[in-house]
Protein backbone atom coordinates (compact mmCIF):
# COMPACT_ATOMS: atom_id res chain seq x y z
CA UNK A 1 0.00 0.00 0.00
CA UNK A 2 1.78 3.18 -1.16
CA UNK A 3 0.85 6.45 0.53
CA UNK A 4 -1.73 7.51 -2.12
CA UNK A 5 -4.06 4.69 -1.05
CA UNK A 6 -3.62 5.14 2.70
CA UNK A 7 -5.91 7.23 4.90
CA UNK A 8 -5.21 7.79 8.58
CA UNK A 9 -8.16 9.09 10.57
CA UNK A 10 -9.72 9.33 14.01
CA UNK A 11 -13.28 9.49 15.19
CA UNK A 12 -13.63 12.34 17.66
CA UNK A 13 -16.77 12.86 19.68
CA UNK A 14 -18.34 13.71 22.98
CA UNK A 15 -18.96 10.68 25.20
CA UNK A 16 -21.90 8.52 24.09
CA UNK A 17 -22.32 10.13 20.70
CA UNK A 18 -21.60 6.74 19.13
CA UNK A 19 -17.89 6.53 18.42
CA UNK A 20 -17.52 2.83 19.21
CA UNK A 21 -20.70 1.94 17.36
CA UNK A 22 -19.53 3.73 14.23
CA UNK A 23 -16.08 2.11 14.48
CA UNK A 24 -17.78 -1.29 14.64
CA UNK A 25 -19.91 -0.54 11.58
CA UNK A 26 -16.87 0.56 9.58
CA UNK A 27 -15.03 -2.63 10.51
CA UNK A 28 -18.05 -4.73 9.54
CA UNK A 29 -18.70 -2.91 6.28
CA UNK A 30 -15.10 -3.43 5.19
CA UNK A 31 -15.21 -7.10 6.20
CA UNK A 32 -12.54 -6.60 8.86
CA UNK A 33 -14.79 -8.15 11.47
CA UNK A 34 -17.81 -10.31 10.98
CA UNK A 35 -21.26 -8.91 11.37
CA UNK A 36 -22.44 -9.94 14.77
CA UNK A 37 -25.81 -11.21 15.78
CA UNK A 38 -28.13 -8.61 17.09
CA UNK A 39 -28.22 -8.73 20.87
CA UNK A 40 -24.60 -9.61 21.41
CA UNK A 41 -23.48 -6.49 19.66
CA UNK A 42 -20.56 -5.56 21.88
CA UNK A 43 -18.06 -3.15 20.44
CA UNK A 44 -14.73 -4.83 19.78
CA UNK A 45 -12.95 -1.59 20.45
CA UNK A 46 -13.92 -1.28 24.09
CA UNK A 47 -12.09 -3.97 26.00
CA UNK A 48 -11.74 -3.33 29.67
CA UNK A 49 -14.50 -4.36 32.02
CA UNK A 50 -14.65 -0.99 33.71
CA UNK A 51 -14.97 0.67 30.35
CA UNK A 52 -17.93 -1.49 29.54
CA UNK A 53 -19.56 -0.82 32.90
CA UNK A 54 -19.08 2.90 32.66
CA UNK A 55 -19.64 3.06 28.92
CA UNK A 56 -16.55 5.12 28.36
CA UNK A 57 -13.40 4.37 26.45
CA UNK A 58 -10.33 4.58 28.62
CA UNK A 59 -7.77 2.78 26.57
CA UNK A 60 -7.58 3.67 22.91
CA UNK A 61 -7.77 0.85 20.36
CA UNK A 62 -6.71 1.14 16.78
CA UNK A 63 -7.58 -0.92 13.70
CA UNK A 64 -6.78 -1.07 9.99
CA UNK A 65 -9.27 -1.95 7.26
CA UNK A 66 -9.05 -2.54 3.56
CA UNK A 67 -11.75 -1.04 1.37
CA UNK A 68 -12.26 -1.20 -2.40
CA UNK A 69 -13.37 2.06 -3.91
CA UNK A 70 -13.42 2.84 -7.65
CA UNK A 71 -10.75 0.59 -9.11
CA UNK A 72 -8.42 0.78 -6.13
CA UNK A 73 -7.95 -0.87 -2.77
CA UNK A 74 -7.42 1.50 0.14
CA UNK A 75 -5.83 0.93 3.52
CA UNK A 76 -7.86 2.85 6.07
CA UNK A 77 -6.29 3.21 9.50
CA UNK A 78 -8.68 4.11 12.28
CA UNK A 79 -6.76 5.62 15.14
CA UNK A 80 -9.00 5.46 18.17
CA UNK A 81 -8.62 8.00 20.94
CA UNK A 82 -9.70 7.69 24.57
CA UNK A 83 -12.97 9.42 25.36
CA UNK A 84 -12.58 11.29 28.61
CA UNK A 85 -11.41 14.66 29.76
CA UNK A 86 -8.70 13.17 32.01
CA UNK A 87 -7.09 11.83 28.87
CA UNK A 88 -7.63 14.94 26.77
CA UNK A 89 -3.92 15.40 26.43
CA UNK A 90 -3.46 11.88 25.07
CA UNK A 91 -6.29 12.44 22.63
CA UNK A 92 -4.64 15.50 21.26
CA UNK A 93 -1.31 13.65 20.98
CA UNK A 94 -2.72 10.66 19.15
CA UNK A 95 -4.35 13.00 16.66
CA UNK A 96 -0.85 13.78 15.38
CA UNK A 97 -0.88 10.31 13.80
CA UNK A 98 -3.79 11.24 11.46
CA UNK A 99 -4.50 13.51 8.54
CA UNK A 100 -8.23 13.69 9.14
CA UNK A 101 -10.94 13.26 11.75
CA UNK A 102 -14.62 12.40 11.73
CA UNK A 103 -16.29 14.85 14.09
CA UNK A 104 -19.24 12.79 15.30
CA UNK A 105 -22.18 14.62 16.85
CA UNK A 106 -25.37 13.10 18.20
CA UNK A 107 -28.24 14.54 16.12
CA UNK A 108 -30.57 14.52 19.12
CA UNK A 109 -28.15 16.11 21.59
CA UNK A 110 -26.18 18.51 19.46
CA UNK A 111 -22.74 19.91 20.11
CA UNK A 112 -21.47 19.18 23.64
CA UNK A 113 -18.48 20.37 25.67
CA UNK A 114 -16.11 17.68 24.42
CA UNK A 115 -17.27 18.10 20.83
CA UNK A 116 -15.81 21.57 21.13
CA UNK A 117 -12.54 20.56 22.74
CA UNK A 118 -11.85 17.70 20.32
CA UNK A 119 -12.77 19.93 17.39
CA UNK A 120 -10.19 22.48 18.49
CA UNK A 121 -7.57 19.81 19.14
CA UNK A 122 -8.05 18.48 15.59
CA UNK A 123 -8.18 21.94 14.07
CA UNK A 124 -4.96 22.98 15.84
CA UNK A 125 -3.19 20.02 14.31
CA UNK A 126 -4.36 21.02 10.86
CA UNK A 127 -6.48 17.89 10.34
CA UNK A 128 -9.19 17.68 7.70
CA UNK A 129 -12.43 17.60 9.66
CA UNK A 130 -15.43 15.67 8.37
CA UNK A 131 -18.65 16.55 10.20
CA UNK A 132 -20.91 13.54 10.80
CA UNK A 133 -24.33 13.62 12.45
CA UNK A 134 -25.18 10.32 14.12
CA UNK A 135 -28.39 8.77 15.47
CA UNK A 136 -30.64 10.24 12.78
CA UNK A 137 -32.90 7.23 13.41
CA UNK A 138 -33.97 8.66 16.77
CA UNK A 139 -37.36 10.38 16.83
CA UNK A 140 -35.75 13.25 18.76
CA UNK A 141 -33.07 13.76 16.08
CA UNK A 142 -32.97 17.26 14.58
CA UNK A 143 -30.34 16.93 11.87
CA UNK A 144 -31.11 20.29 10.22
CA UNK A 145 -31.10 22.22 13.48
CA UNK A 146 -27.86 20.60 14.64
CA UNK A 147 -26.21 21.10 11.25
CA UNK A 148 -27.04 24.81 11.55
CA UNK A 149 -25.61 24.76 15.04
CA UNK A 150 -22.38 23.24 13.72
CA UNK A 151 -22.25 25.99 11.14
CA UNK A 152 -22.53 28.75 13.72
CA UNK A 153 -20.11 27.13 16.19
CA UNK A 154 -17.49 25.58 13.88
CA UNK A 155 -18.07 27.39 10.61
CA UNK A 156 -18.94 24.09 8.92
CA UNK A 157 -20.96 24.23 5.68
CA UNK A 158 -24.20 22.25 6.28
CA UNK A 159 -23.81 20.78 2.79
CA UNK A 160 -20.65 18.98 4.00
CA UNK A 161 -22.39 17.24 6.90
CA UNK A 162 -22.85 13.46 6.52
CA UNK A 163 -25.99 12.15 8.20
CA UNK A 164 -25.88 8.61 9.52
CA UNK A 165 -27.21 6.11 11.97
CA UNK A 166 -24.35 3.99 13.23
CA UNK A 167 -26.82 1.74 14.99
CA UNK A 168 -29.02 0.87 12.03
CA UNK A 169 -26.23 1.20 9.46
CA UNK A 170 -27.58 4.17 7.48
CA UNK A 171 -24.95 6.25 5.67
CA UNK A 172 -21.90 4.12 6.51
CA UNK A 173 -20.93 3.78 2.80
CA UNK A 174 -20.93 7.57 2.60
CA UNK A 175 -18.58 7.77 5.53
CA UNK A 176 -16.10 5.40 3.84
CA UNK A 177 -16.37 7.40 0.61
CA UNK A 178 -15.69 10.78 2.19
CA UNK A 179 -12.76 9.38 4.19
CA UNK A 180 -11.17 8.45 0.87
CA UNK A 181 -12.25 11.56 -1.04
CA UNK A 182 -11.69 14.28 1.53
CA UNK A 183 -8.82 13.20 3.77
CA UNK A 184 -5.38 13.77 2.26
CA UNK A 185 -3.00 10.78 2.08
CA UNK A 186 0.08 10.74 4.35
CA UNK A 187 3.31 12.17 2.94
CA UNK A 188 6.21 9.99 4.16
CA UNK A 189 8.96 8.72 1.79
CA UNK A 190 10.53 5.31 1.92
CA UNK A 191 14.04 6.68 1.24
CA UNK A 192 13.93 9.02 4.24
CA UNK A 193 15.55 7.99 7.54
CA UNK A 194 13.22 5.95 9.73
CA UNK A 195 10.88 8.11 11.79
CA UNK A 196 8.12 6.38 13.75
CA UNK A 197 5.63 8.32 15.84
CA UNK A 198 4.52 6.49 18.98
CA UNK A 199 0.86 7.31 19.66
CA UNK A 200 -0.34 4.54 21.96
CA UNK A 201 0.89 1.52 23.87
CA UNK A 202 -0.44 -1.49 25.68
CA UNK A 203 1.09 -4.16 27.85
CA UNK A 204 1.39 -7.85 27.18
CA UNK A 205 2.46 -10.19 29.95
CA UNK A 206 4.78 -12.19 27.71
CA UNK A 207 6.16 -9.66 25.27
CA UNK A 208 6.23 -6.53 27.41
CA UNK A 209 5.11 -3.24 25.93
CA UNK A 210 3.46 -3.24 22.52
CA UNK A 211 3.66 0.20 20.94
CA UNK A 212 1.46 1.54 18.20
CA UNK A 213 3.32 3.65 15.71
CA UNK A 214 2.72 5.63 12.60
CA UNK A 215 5.58 5.56 10.11
CA UNK A 216 6.37 9.14 9.12
CA UNK A 217 9.28 8.16 6.91
CA UNK A 218 11.54 5.22 6.04
CA UNK A 219 10.67 1.57 6.61
CA UNK A 220 10.71 -0.61 9.69
CA UNK A 221 11.33 -4.34 9.79
CA UNK A 222 12.13 -7.16 12.20
CA UNK A 223 15.61 -6.98 13.69
CA UNK A 224 15.92 -3.21 13.23
CA UNK A 225 17.72 -1.44 16.05
CA UNK A 226 15.79 1.60 17.16
CA UNK A 227 15.95 4.24 19.86
CA UNK A 228 13.62 6.77 21.49
CA UNK A 229 14.17 10.50 21.08
CA UNK A 230 12.88 11.09 24.59
CA UNK A 231 14.43 8.34 26.74
CA UNK A 232 17.40 7.51 24.44
CA UNK A 233 16.87 3.84 25.32
CA UNK A 234 17.69 1.30 22.60
CA UNK A 235 15.57 -1.58 21.42
CA UNK A 236 15.50 -4.29 18.79
CA UNK A 237 12.28 -4.89 16.89
CA UNK A 238 11.21 -8.50 17.53
CA UNK A 239 7.75 -8.40 16.00
CA UNK A 240 5.70 -5.99 13.96
CA UNK A 241 2.55 -5.81 11.88
CA UNK A 242 -0.79 -4.13 11.45
CA UNK A 243 -3.93 -4.20 13.59
CA UNK A 244 -6.36 -6.07 11.35
CA UNK A 245 -8.24 -5.74 13.65
CA UNK A 246 -6.06 -7.84 15.99
CA UNK A 247 -2.27 -7.98 15.63
CA UNK A 248 -1.40 -9.37 12.20
CA UNK A 249 2.35 -9.78 11.53
CA UNK A 250 3.82 -8.23 8.36
CA UNK A 251 7.41 -8.11 7.11
CA UNK A 252 7.70 -4.33 7.11
CA UNK A 253 5.87 -1.18 8.07
CA UNK A 254 6.07 1.43 5.33
CA UNK A 255 5.56 5.21 5.25
CA UNK A 256 2.00 6.24 6.11
CA UNK A 257 1.25 2.88 7.69
CA UNK A 258 0.02 2.39 11.20
CA UNK A 259 0.97 -0.72 13.12
CA UNK A 260 2.26 -2.36 16.26
CA UNK A 261 5.80 -3.14 17.27
CA UNK A 262 7.16 -5.34 20.05
CA UNK A 263 10.75 -4.52 20.95
CA UNK A 264 11.52 -5.89 24.41
CA UNK A 265 10.36 -2.74 26.09
CA UNK A 266 9.80 -3.94 29.65
CA UNK A 267 7.69 -1.28 31.33
CA UNK A 268 4.93 0.87 29.99
CA UNK A 269 6.62 3.88 31.60
CA UNK A 270 9.17 3.66 28.78
CA UNK A 271 6.54 4.19 26.09
CA UNK A 272 5.65 7.87 26.01
CA UNK A 273 2.76 8.98 23.87
CA UNK A 274 4.04 11.53 21.40
CA UNK A 275 7.61 10.16 21.41
CA UNK A 276 9.52 9.64 18.15
CA UNK A 277 11.54 6.48 17.40
CA UNK A 278 14.42 6.36 14.95
CA UNK A 279 17.17 4.04 13.79
CA UNK A 280 20.18 3.83 16.13
CA UNK A 281 22.82 6.22 14.77
CA UNK A 282 20.46 7.94 12.32
CA UNK A 283 18.84 10.77 14.30
CA UNK A 284 15.73 12.56 13.05
CA UNK A 285 13.88 15.71 14.08
CA UNK A 286 11.37 14.56 16.75
CA UNK A 287 7.67 15.28 16.29
CA UNK A 288 6.95 18.68 17.87
CA UNK A 289 5.27 19.44 21.17
CA UNK A 290 6.22 16.35 23.12
CA UNK A 291 5.85 16.38 26.88
CA UNK A 292 5.34 13.44 29.22
CA UNK A 293 1.93 13.05 30.88
CA UNK A 294 1.82 14.53 34.37
CA UNK A 295 -0.23 13.49 37.35
CA UNK A 296 -2.72 16.09 38.58
CA UNK A 297 -4.58 14.19 41.30
CA UNK A 298 -2.91 12.35 44.15
CA UNK A 299 -4.31 10.06 46.81
CA UNK A 300 -3.04 7.56 49.34
CA UNK A 301 -4.15 3.94 48.93
CA UNK A 302 -4.09 1.67 51.96
CA UNK A 303 -5.27 -1.91 52.50
CA UNK A 304 -8.33 -2.28 54.73
CA UNK A 305 -6.46 -5.03 56.52
CA UNK A 306 -2.92 -3.76 57.07
CA UNK A 307 -1.48 -7.28 56.77
CA UNK A 308 -2.36 -7.10 53.09
CA UNK A 309 0.07 -4.34 52.23
CA UNK A 310 2.53 -6.43 50.22
CA UNK A 311 -0.29 -8.01 48.27
CA UNK A 312 -1.71 -4.58 47.55
CA UNK A 313 1.64 -3.22 46.46
CA UNK A 314 2.16 -6.14 44.14
CA UNK A 315 -1.29 -5.62 42.58
CA UNK A 316 -0.60 -1.93 42.09
CA UNK A 317 2.70 -2.73 40.44
CA UNK A 318 1.08 -5.14 38.04
CA UNK A 319 -1.68 -2.68 37.17
CA UNK A 320 0.74 0.14 36.52
CA UNK A 321 2.62 -2.06 34.07
CA UNK A 322 -0.41 -1.62 31.83
CA UNK A 323 -1.16 1.99 32.72
CA UNK A 324 1.93 4.09 32.33
CA UNK A 325 0.29 7.30 33.51
CA UNK A 326 -0.05 6.31 37.17
CA UNK A 327 2.74 7.53 39.47
CA UNK A 328 3.54 5.32 42.47
CA UNK A 329 5.41 6.03 45.71
CA UNK A 330 5.36 4.34 49.10
CA UNK A 331 3.63 6.15 51.91
CA UNK A 332 3.20 5.36 55.56
CA UNK A 333 0.63 6.73 57.89
CA UNK A 334 0.52 6.29 61.64
CA UNK A 335 -3.23 5.77 61.42
CA UNK A 336 -3.44 3.55 58.33
CA UNK A 337 -0.06 1.83 58.28
CA UNK A 338 1.85 1.13 55.07
CA UNK A 339 0.33 2.20 51.80
CA UNK A 340 1.08 3.75 48.45
CA UNK A 341 0.67 7.29 47.25
CA UNK A 342 -0.56 7.32 43.69
CA UNK A 343 -0.73 10.12 41.15
CA UNK A 344 -3.41 10.14 38.46
CA UNK A 345 -4.24 12.25 35.40
CA UNK A 346 -7.62 13.13 36.88
CA UNK A 347 -10.34 11.92 39.20
CA UNK A 348 -11.97 9.60 36.69
CA UNK A 349 -8.60 8.03 36.06
CA UNK A 350 -8.41 7.48 39.82
CA UNK A 351 -11.87 5.89 39.98
CA UNK A 352 -11.06 3.62 37.06
CA UNK A 353 -7.82 2.53 38.70
CA UNK A 354 -9.52 1.82 42.01
CA UNK A 355 -12.18 -0.21 40.29
CA UNK A 356 -9.62 -2.22 38.34
CA UNK A 357 -7.74 -2.87 41.56
CA UNK A 358 -10.91 -4.14 43.20
CA UNK A 359 -12.12 -6.15 40.19
CA UNK A 360 -8.93 -7.69 38.95
CA UNK A 361 -7.01 -8.11 42.18
CA UNK A 362 -9.77 -8.34 44.78
CA UNK A 363 -8.07 -5.62 46.71
CA UNK A 364 -10.03 -4.01 49.48
CA UNK A 365 -8.67 -0.50 49.73
CA UNK A 366 -9.08 2.76 51.57
CA UNK A 367 -8.37 5.80 49.43
CA UNK A 368 -7.61 9.10 51.14
CA UNK A 369 -9.15 12.38 49.98
CA UNK A 370 -7.79 13.40 46.55
CA UNK A 371 -5.27 16.26 46.50
CA UNK A 372 -3.86 18.28 43.61
CA UNK A 373 -0.22 19.40 43.43
CA UNK A 374 0.11 22.76 45.24
CA UNK A 375 2.99 25.11 44.66
CA UNK A 376 4.64 26.55 47.76
CA UNK A 377 6.80 29.63 47.21
CA UNK A 378 9.19 30.12 50.12
CA UNK A 379 10.54 33.46 51.31
CA UNK A 380 13.91 32.73 49.75
CA UNK A 381 12.21 32.37 46.35
CA UNK A 382 12.45 28.57 46.12
CA UNK A 383 9.41 26.66 44.91
CA UNK A 384 8.24 23.19 45.89
CA UNK A 385 5.27 21.14 44.79
CA UNK A 386 3.30 19.44 47.54
CA UNK A 387 0.68 16.85 46.82
CA UNK A 388 0.32 15.26 50.23
CA UNK A 389 -1.54 17.21 52.95
CA UNK A 390 0.84 15.74 55.54
CA UNK A 391 3.72 17.71 53.99
CA UNK A 392 1.80 20.97 53.70
CA UNK A 393 3.39 23.79 55.76
CA UNK A 394 1.44 25.43 58.57
CA UNK A 395 0.79 28.83 56.99
CA UNK A 396 -0.74 30.19 60.19
CA UNK A 397 2.62 29.89 61.92
CA UNK A 398 4.57 33.10 61.27
CA UNK A 399 7.92 31.37 61.81
CA UNK A 400 7.24 29.16 58.79
CA UNK A 401 8.98 30.74 55.81
CA UNK A 402 6.15 30.65 53.27
CA UNK A 403 5.71 33.61 50.95
CA UNK A 404 2.79 32.32 48.92
CA UNK A 405 0.74 29.21 48.16
CA UNK A 406 -0.48 28.63 44.61
CA UNK A 407 -2.94 26.07 43.31
CA UNK A 408 -3.55 24.64 39.83
CA UNK A 409 -6.55 26.09 38.01
CA UNK A 410 -8.37 25.01 34.86
CA UNK A 411 -10.44 26.75 32.25
CA UNK A 412 -13.77 24.96 32.48
CA UNK A 413 -16.39 24.99 29.70
CA UNK A 414 -19.94 23.97 30.45
CA UNK A 415 -22.65 23.62 27.83
CA UNK A 416 -26.25 23.73 29.13
CA UNK A 417 -29.77 24.59 28.03
CA UNK A 418 -30.37 28.25 28.87
CA UNK A 419 -32.79 27.60 31.73
CA UNK A 420 -29.91 26.20 33.81
CA UNK A 421 -27.69 29.24 33.39
CA UNK A 422 -28.45 30.58 36.87
CA UNK A 423 -27.78 27.23 38.54
CA UNK A 424 -24.51 26.79 36.69
CA UNK A 425 -23.26 30.31 37.45
CA UNK A 426 -24.02 29.67 41.09
CA UNK A 427 -22.22 26.32 40.95
CA UNK A 428 -19.10 27.93 39.47
CA UNK A 429 -19.31 30.68 42.04
CA UNK A 430 -19.54 28.33 45.03
CA UNK A 431 -16.57 26.40 43.66
CA UNK A 432 -14.50 29.58 43.64
CA UNK A 433 -14.89 30.18 39.91
CA UNK A 434 -13.45 33.42 38.52
CA UNK A 435 -13.84 35.22 35.20
CA UNK A 436 -17.22 33.55 34.77
CA UNK A 437 -18.50 34.30 31.30
CA UNK A 438 -21.14 32.96 28.92
CA UNK A 439 -22.50 33.21 25.41
CA UNK A 440 -25.26 31.68 23.32
CA UNK A 441 -24.37 28.75 21.09
CA UNK A 442 -27.56 28.85 19.04
CA UNK A 443 -29.34 31.76 17.45
CA UNK A 444 -30.57 33.73 20.46
CA UNK A 445 -34.30 33.85 21.04
CA UNK A 446 -34.90 30.21 20.15
CA UNK A 447 -36.65 28.41 22.95
CA UNK A 448 -34.24 25.55 23.51
CA UNK A 449 -31.13 27.66 22.96
CA UNK A 450 -28.02 26.51 24.75
CA UNK A 451 -25.28 28.39 26.44
CA UNK A 452 -21.58 27.89 26.82
CA UNK A 453 -20.30 29.02 30.17
CA UNK A 454 -16.58 29.39 30.83
CA UNK A 455 -14.80 29.97 34.12
CA UNK A 456 -11.43 29.62 35.73
CA UNK A 457 -11.90 27.09 38.55
CA UNK A 458 -9.37 25.55 40.95
CA UNK A 459 -8.62 21.97 39.96
CA UNK A 460 -8.92 20.96 43.61
CA UNK A 461 -12.62 21.89 43.45
CA UNK A 462 -13.17 19.90 40.25
CA UNK A 463 -11.66 16.68 41.60
CA UNK A 464 -13.97 16.51 44.58
CA UNK A 465 -17.67 17.25 44.29
CA UNK A 466 -17.97 19.57 41.31
CA UNK A 467 -18.81 16.99 38.67
CA UNK A 468 -21.58 15.27 40.66
CA UNK A 469 -23.16 18.61 41.48
CA UNK A 470 -22.92 19.76 37.89
CA UNK A 471 -24.87 16.71 36.78
CA UNK A 472 -27.51 16.91 39.49
CA UNK A 473 -28.06 20.65 39.32
CA UNK A 474 -28.53 20.55 35.54
CA UNK A 475 -30.74 17.42 35.64
CA UNK A 476 -27.98 15.70 33.71
CA UNK A 477 -28.10 18.16 30.81
CA UNK A 478 -24.79 19.90 31.35
CA UNK A 479 -21.71 18.70 29.55
CA UNK A 480 -18.34 19.67 30.84
CA UNK A 481 -14.73 19.86 29.80
CA UNK A 482 -11.63 21.60 31.02
CA UNK A 483 -8.11 22.48 30.08
CA UNK A 484 -5.04 23.34 32.12
CA UNK A 485 -4.81 27.06 32.96
CA UNK A 486 -1.67 27.20 35.10
CA UNK A 487 -1.30 28.20 38.76
CA UNK A 488 -2.83 31.03 40.79
CA UNK A 489 -2.13 32.36 44.30
CA UNK A 490 -4.67 31.13 46.83
CA UNK A 491 -5.48 31.27 50.54
CA UNK A 492 -5.14 27.64 51.46
CA UNK A 493 -4.25 25.95 54.69
CA UNK A 494 -3.96 22.50 56.13
CA UNK A 495 -6.88 21.31 58.22
CA UNK A 496 -6.16 18.58 60.72
CA UNK A 497 -8.55 16.46 62.73
CA UNK A 498 -7.77 15.69 66.35
CA UNK A 499 -9.02 12.80 68.43
CA UNK A 500 -8.47 13.37 72.11
CA UNK A 501 -6.00 16.08 71.13
CA UNK A 502 -3.97 13.88 68.74
CA UNK A 503 -3.96 14.64 64.98
CA UNK A 504 -4.96 11.80 62.63
CA UNK A 505 -2.53 12.11 59.71
CA UNK A 506 -4.61 10.20 57.17
CA UNK A 507 -7.45 12.67 57.50
CA UNK A 508 -5.57 15.94 56.88
CA UNK A 509 -7.04 18.14 54.12
CA UNK A 510 -6.03 21.25 52.22
CA UNK A 511 -8.89 23.71 52.53
CA UNK A 512 -9.56 27.19 51.19
CA UNK A 513 -10.13 29.95 53.74
CA UNK A 514 -13.71 30.51 52.61
CA UNK A 515 -14.63 26.87 53.23
CA UNK A 516 -12.86 26.23 56.53
CA UNK A 517 -15.90 26.43 58.80
CA UNK A 518 -18.17 24.43 56.58
CA UNK A 519 -15.67 21.67 55.85
CA UNK A 520 -14.48 21.51 59.46
CA UNK A 521 -18.00 21.14 60.81
CA UNK A 522 -19.07 18.58 58.21
CA UNK A 523 -16.06 16.32 58.78
CA UNK A 524 -16.31 16.51 62.55
CA UNK A 525 -19.96 15.46 62.31
CA UNK A 526 -19.02 12.58 60.06
CA UNK A 527 -16.28 11.45 62.44
CA UNK A 528 -18.68 11.69 65.34
CA UNK A 529 -21.01 9.27 63.58
CA UNK A 530 -18.47 6.59 62.67
CA UNK A 531 -16.06 6.57 65.59
CA UNK A 532 -17.10 4.06 68.25
CA UNK A 533 -17.44 5.29 71.81
CA UNK A 534 -14.45 4.63 74.05
CA UNK A 535 -14.09 3.99 77.75
CA UNK A 536 -13.42 7.69 78.22
CA UNK A 537 -14.73 10.90 76.74
CA UNK A 538 -13.18 11.78 73.37
CA UNK A 539 -13.21 15.30 71.93
CA UNK A 540 -13.25 15.32 68.11
CA UNK A 541 -11.86 18.56 66.71
CA UNK A 542 -11.02 20.20 63.40
CA UNK A 543 -8.11 22.62 63.50
CA UNK A 544 -6.29 25.00 61.19
CA UNK A 545 -2.92 25.65 62.74
CA UNK A 546 -3.73 26.13 66.41
CA UNK A 547 -7.21 27.41 65.82
CA UNK A 548 -10.05 24.97 66.54
CA UNK A 549 -12.74 25.27 63.88
CA UNK A 550 -15.26 22.70 65.06
CA UNK A 551 -15.76 20.25 67.89
CA UNK A 552 -17.99 17.36 68.97
CA UNK A 553 -17.61 15.25 72.07
CA UNK A 554 -17.98 11.51 72.10
CA UNK A 555 -19.38 10.40 75.45
CA UNK A 556 -17.65 7.68 77.44
CA UNK A 557 -18.83 4.10 77.18
CA UNK A 558 -19.35 1.77 80.10
CA UNK A 559 -16.63 -0.80 80.58
CA UNK A 560 -18.60 -4.03 80.29
CA UNK A 561 -19.91 -4.54 76.78
CA UNK A 562 -22.29 -7.21 77.95
CA UNK A 563 -23.73 -5.14 80.73
CA UNK A 564 -26.36 -3.54 78.58
CA UNK A 565 -27.58 -6.79 77.08
CA UNK A 566 -31.03 -7.97 77.93
CA UNK A 567 -31.41 -10.97 80.24
CA UNK A 568 -28.52 -13.24 80.88
CA UNK A 569 -28.21 -15.63 77.94
CA UNK A 570 -24.79 -17.07 78.39
CA UNK A 571 -24.25 -17.92 74.70
CA UNK A 572 -25.25 -14.53 73.59
CA UNK A 573 -22.86 -12.96 76.03
CA UNK A 574 -20.09 -15.21 74.82
CA UNK A 575 -20.74 -14.33 71.19
CA UNK A 576 -20.53 -10.69 71.98
CA UNK A 577 -17.22 -11.09 73.71
CA UNK A 578 -15.81 -13.01 70.75
CA UNK A 579 -16.99 -10.28 68.39
CA UNK A 580 -15.31 -7.73 70.54
CA UNK A 581 -12.04 -9.66 70.38
CA UNK A 582 -12.25 -9.96 66.58
CA UNK A 583 -12.80 -6.26 66.39
CA UNK A 584 -9.76 -5.54 68.56
CA UNK A 585 -7.44 -7.13 66.02
CA UNK A 586 -8.27 -4.60 63.36
CA UNK A 587 -8.19 -1.66 65.72
CA UNK A 588 -5.82 1.21 65.12
CA UNK A 589 -4.56 3.32 67.95
CA UNK A 590 -4.67 7.05 67.56
CA UNK A 591 -3.20 8.25 70.83
CA UNK A 592 -5.33 6.42 73.37
CA UNK A 593 -8.27 6.07 71.02
CA UNK A 594 -9.08 2.72 69.40
CA UNK A 595 -10.29 3.06 65.83
CA UNK A 596 -11.42 0.24 63.57
CA UNK A 597 -9.80 0.48 60.13
CA UNK A 598 -13.32 0.27 58.68
CA UNK A 599 -14.12 3.62 60.26
CA UNK A 600 -11.61 5.21 57.89
CA UNK A 601 -13.23 3.42 55.02
CA UNK A 602 -16.60 4.86 56.03
CA UNK A 603 -15.22 8.36 56.50
CA UNK A 604 -13.25 8.47 53.28
CA UNK A 605 -15.55 6.65 50.91
CA UNK A 606 -18.48 9.01 51.41
CA UNK A 607 -18.09 12.42 49.86
P1 LIG B 1 -17.55 6.40 24.58
O1 LIG B 1 -16.93 5.04 24.39
O2 LIG B 1 -17.95 6.64 25.99
O3 LIG B 1 -16.76 7.50 23.97
O4 LIG B 1 -18.94 6.35 23.82
P2 LIG B 1 -19.12 6.20 22.30
O5 LIG B 1 -19.08 7.54 21.69
O6 LIG B 1 -18.19 5.15 21.79
O7 LIG B 1 -20.61 5.72 22.19
P3 LIG B 1 -21.16 4.27 21.86
O8 LIG B 1 -20.79 3.83 20.50
O9 LIG B 1 -20.85 3.38 23.00
O10 LIG B 1 -22.71 4.63 21.81
C1 LIG B 1 -23.38 5.21 22.90
C2 LIG B 1 -24.84 4.77 22.89
O11 LIG B 1 -25.49 5.31 21.74
C3 LIG B 1 -25.00 3.28 22.81
O12 LIG B 1 -26.06 2.90 23.63
C4 LIG B 1 -25.31 3.02 21.33
O13 LIG B 1 -26.10 1.86 21.15
C5 LIG B 1 -26.09 4.27 20.98
N1 LIG B 1 -25.98 4.60 19.55
C6 LIG B 1 -24.85 4.71 18.81
N2 LIG B 1 -25.16 5.02 17.52
C7 LIG B 1 -26.50 5.13 17.46
C8 LIG B 1 -27.43 5.45 16.41
O14 LIG B 1 -27.08 5.69 15.26
N3 LIG B 1 -28.74 5.47 16.75
C9 LIG B 1 -29.18 5.21 18.00
N4 LIG B 1 -30.49 5.26 18.22
N5 LIG B 1 -28.34 4.91 19.00
C10 LIG B 1 -27.03 4.87 18.75
From TrEMBL:
Localization, UniProt: Mitochondrion inner membrane
GO CC annotations? mitochondrial inner membrane; mitochondrial matrix
- An example of a Pfam family matching this protein is LepA_C
One biological process term in Gene Ontology: positive regulation of translation
The reaction(s) annotated as catalysed by this protein in its Swiss-Prot or TrEMBL entry are: GTP + H2O = GDP + phosphate + H(+)
Task: Please tell me whether the keyword Cytoplasm is annotated for this protein.
Answer: no
Q: Which CDD domains match?
A: EF4_II (cd03699), EF4_III (cd16260), LepA (cd01890), lepA_C (cd03709)
Which residues span the membrane?
A: none
Select a single GO molecular function from the record's annotations and give it.
translation elongation factor activity
Instruction: Please classify the protein's predominant subcellular localization into one broad category.
Output: mitochondrion
User: Would you say which domain of life the source belongs to?
Assistant: Eukaryota
The residues the record assigns to binding GTP are 13-20, 80-84, 134-137
Membrane topology, record value = Peripheral membrane protein
Keywords of the record, alphabetical order, are: Elongation factor, GTP-binding, Hydrolase, Membrane, Mitochondrion, Mitochondrion inner membrane, Nucleotide-binding, Protein biosynthesis
Residue limits of the Tr-type G domain? Answer: 4-187
**PANTHER family attached to this UniProt entry:** TRANSLATION FACTOR GUF1, MITOCHONDRIAL, TRANSLATION FACTOR GUF1-RELATED
Please state which protein family the record places this protein in: Belongs to the TRAFAC class translation factor GTPase superfamily. Classic translation factor GTPase family. LepA subfamily.
NCBIfam families attached to this UniProt entry: lepA (TIGR01393), small_GTP (TIGR00231)
The job of this chain, per UniProt, is described as: Promotes mitochondrial protein synthesis. May act as a fidelity factor of the translation reaction, by catalyzing a one-codon backward translocation of tRNAs on improperly translocated ribosomes. Binds to mitochondrial ribosomes in a GTP-dependent manner.
The name under which this protein is listed is Elongation factor 4
